[in-house]
Design a protein that fits this description.
The complex is a heterodimer. By secondary structure, chain A is of the alpha+beta class. In chain A, about 25% of the residues lie in helices and about 25% in strands. Chain A is built from five helices and eight strands, in the order βαββαβαβαβββα. In chain A, strands 1, 2, 3, 4, 5, 6, 7 and 8 form an eight-stranded mixed beta sheet that branches. Chain A is globular. The C terminus of chain A is likely disordered. About 0% of the residues of chain B have low confidence. Chain B has ten helices and five strands, in the order H-H-E-E-H-H-E-H-E-E-H-H-H-H-H. Chain B has a five-stranded antiparallel beta sheet with strand order 2-1-5-4-3, with helices on one face. By secondary structure, chain B is α+β, with helices and mostly antiparallel strands. In chain B, helix 1 packs parallel to helix 6 and helix 7 crosses helix 9. Classes of the chains: A alpha+beta, B alpha+beta. At the A-B interface, helix 4 and helix 5 of A face helix 1 and helix 6 of B.
Chain lengths: ~210, ~240
């Protein structure tokens, strides 16, 4: 299931967020070699991991297996603050547009069709969250090879600029439109039939059993 | 013509509004020719011995090339196609490596392509989440090889492929479900080979072949091998 963590309920999820920062370090620094994110404490956590961040954590049982981060586009965010030159069309900013970053799933959950159902669950969680909060578009900075995947899932995407080589990979700023149909086609692709978001009223999994 | 970002935005905006495969073909052809590529092909790239022709989505090759290419079995020797099956980033055709000594036919493919007016080429791989690669490949005699032009083509190619797949209804329901290896094995089953025979052809163990056939059967809801072949043919997964 996908848990939403914001500044309002973060106290309930401190251990899971910590666990996710370490997972992010393993993935982005360890696997992807984005060395500018390397931290001596092994936690990948940047200036946008602040009170504005909305986390989607994929938690199976007690274990964090993936996550993702949304930031309202009216607040400082990655595309706006660090990569504005990648958006020759301009950085879209509005109350109903969010930036989507750090989409990740641990290695052991990437098997299977379409890069694994854990990823599909994260996609569905993001869409459910956006639809519930009237977010109509997401901006993202992605490697070019993600674009066909979004097409396969039936998402409508719009390039915001020309691709550039970032850490050796062609990357591009895009805007993704969100609507009900996108959620339907994404669910269909991954064989997901039920909502994946944990209702906001439910508490975090027990702290005691979470691995350090 | 120098405002490269604007040329990309315009092309993408036009592609989004098109509702027919023919419309997308014309638009893509028009954009690519504005960069000096007057021939192009949009296709999936199966593993040889599978043939290319059934996997072609849009064919904008010069007259006669597809026929010649098929007749002389160029696909199995085409160094650009071989490189494409492994590539993530776009590349110029001339960057695709081949060994003239061990594969003289690779050189022939490139030479004859030149005779057809395709002396310089560029290829944009389309990496799919199913693992079954596709590409937009293009050629001309004096294309614009400016790095900015290449970036425009990179984006436009992927967007055009997405549009065509959506229009052809490929995106969700009819997408390929077999891995390239399973498809290859099933191809040999379809021409009457036994697991043992396939294992020698593909240099794999017989038990590996059996596992792949079983997996393909499950994916295709088939109880027998024959049924798997029939279902695969019907779903457009394999062909003769």
């Amino acid at each position: 299931m996908i848990h939403i963590v914001t500044s309002a309920n973060r106290a309930d999820y401190e251990l899971q967020i910590e666990s996710d920062f370490r997972i992010r370090h393993d993935i982005y620094v360890g696997e992807r070699k984005w060395m500018n994110l390397a931290k001596p404490d092994g936690r990948e956590c940047d200036q946008f991991d602040n009170d504005d961040a909305i986390y989607l954590l994929a938690i199976e049982g007690q274990k964090v297996v993936g996550g993702s981060r949304l930031i309202p586009s009216l607040k400082p965010h990655l595309l706006d603050a660090v990569f504005p030159h990648l958006a020759q069309k301009g950085v879209p900013r509005a109350h109903n547009i969010y930036e989507w970053t750090r989409v990740h799933v641990i290695k052991e959950r990437r098997e299977g069709r379409n890069r694994g159902v854990a990823l599909g669950s994260l996609f569905c969680g993001v869409l459910e969250y956006c639809l519930a909060h009237d977010v109509v578009a997401l901006t993202a900075l992605v490697e070019m090879w993600w674009l066909p995947h979004f097409h396969e899932m039936g998402w409508t995407l719009d390039p915001l600029g020309l691709p550039e080589l970032i850490d050796g990979e062609w990357s591009i700023a895009i805007s993704l439109s969100i609507d009900r149909r996108t959620l339907e086609t994404t669910r269909e692709m991954f064989g997901i039939r039920e909502p994946v978001l944990v209702p906001a009223t439910r508490k975090a999994p027990s702290r005691i059993e979470v691995p350090a | 013509m120098a405002n490269y970002p604007q040329r990309m935005f315009d092309a993408v905006a036009d592609l989004q509004t098109l509702t027919s495969v023919e419309g997308v073909t014309n638009k893509l052809g028009h954009v690519l020719s504005s960069f000096g590529y007057n021939a192009f092909l949009v296709t999936s790239v199966p593993e040889p011995p599978l043939r290319l022709e059934p996997y072609i989505l849009l064919n904008g090759w010069p007259k006669g090339w597809t026929e010649h290419y098929g007749k002389y079995d160029y696909y199995a020797h085409d160094p650009v196609a071989a490189w494409c099956r492994k590539a993530i980033n776009p590349f110029e055709w001339r960057e695709a490596p081949y060994d003239e000594e061990t594969d003289p036919k690779a050189a022939e493919v490139m030479d004859v392509a030149r005779d057809f007016g395709m002396s310089e080429g560029y290829l944009v791989p389309i990496v799919r989440s199913t693992g079954f690669q596709a590409c937009v490949t293009m050629a001309g005699s004096q294309p614009d090889l400016d790095p900015m032009a290449k970036r425009v083509i990179h984006v436009v190619s992927i967007m055009a492929h997405g549009r065509i797949s959506a229009l052809k209804g490929e995106s969700i329901n009819q997408k390929q479900i077999l891995t390239p290896r399973e498809r290859e094995v099933l191809h040999w089953v379809s021409v009457g080979k036994t697991s043992w025979e396939i294992s020698t052809i593909l240099h794999l163990s017989k038990s590996t072949i059996d596992i792949m056939v079983n997996r393909a059967q499950q994916k295709l809801n088939a109880v027998t091998r024959t049924q798997a072949v029939v279902n695969a043919l019907r779903a457009g997964e394999i062909n003769f």
